[in-house]
Specification:
By secondary structure, the chain is mainly β. The protein contains four helices and 20 strands.
Length: 297
């Protein structure tokens, strides 16, 4: 039975027992992650074969140390990092681990009960609860989707799980903004694991500018170089084009283009709004992964 299955007719003791069971399940799949020079954070056992997810800002370099809930400690290889989405994939050479159950972050609703587990300030397996405040992009953080919740996070919680009432992990706790916790949705985590941190690219160099349009001033990205053989060239983007938005949304900051590229996964299709010769046009682009990609650190 899960917390969500409990009705108001059941006894308080039954509720407490079932809630504790959900918390214990979550605790077993949460690990402590230590990286040289960066202190410690948390992580989630995503697969029982040794695959662990945490935040990119928690780890650096080729290796980290992972401590399981039962006290066992292992050296972990840092397989991939995505500093922009703040995710990292670790692997330990041990199997049959107590993996978390991944939930569907797309099915979440504002007001749902959530649980956060982590290792803040030296407290191992600390639990906090709250509700979801919002789901979607957040001001000043581009077009990326976030889960915003009123759970209390502290140093050491980063990289730990945000779970629903069934104990299913629906996000990775990442930061605090305005007193609320922000978590990377589980759907974004699955995309990261599938791509191993690699992302579709466009193949341009551009400079930001401000220009008038429709009785207001907007941000534009002026293309000054188009890479040969890139998706941009194949679509017909030209030097001098001004990119003003993606999928019908104007850019508010230069990083919004990067967010749009990342959010194009898994279809790798993107519709750009472009000014060319004073006329507004749309370009439908099929993106792809750069074959010679290397991680930027």
């Amino acid at each position: 039975m899960t917390v969500a299955d409990i009705t108001t007719e059941e006894s308080p003791s039954r509720f407490a027992d079932d809630f504790a069971d959900v918390a214990e399940q979550l605790r077993r799949s949460t690990v402590q992650v230590r990286s040289r020079g960066l202190g410690s954070g948390s992580g989630v056992i995503w697969h029982s074969d040794g695959l662990i997810v945490t935040n990119a800002h928690v780890v650096h370099g080729p290796h980290a140390t992972v401590e399981l809930s039962d006290g066992r400690t292992f050296k972990a290889e840092i397989v991939a990092r995505d500093p922009y989405r703040d995710l990292a994939m670790l692997r330990v050479t041990v199997g049959d681990l107590p993996a978390a159950i991944a939930g569907d972050s797309d099915a979440l609703r504002v007001g749902e009960l959530v649980l956060a587990m982590g290792n803040p300030m030296g407290l191992v397996g600390a639990l906090t609860t709250g509700i979801i405040h919002a789901i979607g992009p957040t001001d000043m953080l581009g077009h990326q989707r976030w889960i915003t919740a009123d759970v209390r996070l502290a140093p050491g919680n980063s990289g730990g799980p945000l779970a629903d009432a069934q104990g299913r992990v629906i996000g990775i706790n990442t930061m605090i903004s305005g007193g609320l916790a922000l978590a990377v949705p589980s759907k974004a985590v699955e995309r990261f694991l599938k791509s191993q941190g690699r992302h579709p690219y466009l193949g341009i160099l551009a400079e930001p500018t401000t220009l008038p349009l429709e009785n207001k001033h907007i941000l534009g990205l002026v293309v000054f170089e188009v890479e040969m053989g890139s998706p941009a060239e194949e679509t017909g983007l030209m030097i001098g084009d001004v990119l003003i938005g993606a999928s019908g949304q104007f850019f508010n900051e230069p990083n919004d283009l990067r967010s749009a590229l990342y959010n194009s996964e898994p279809s790798y299709k993107l519709r750009l709004d472009v000014l060319r010769g004073g006329k507004r046009i749309t370009c439908d682009i099929v993106l792809r992964i750069r074959e010679d990609w290397v991680e930027a650190t």
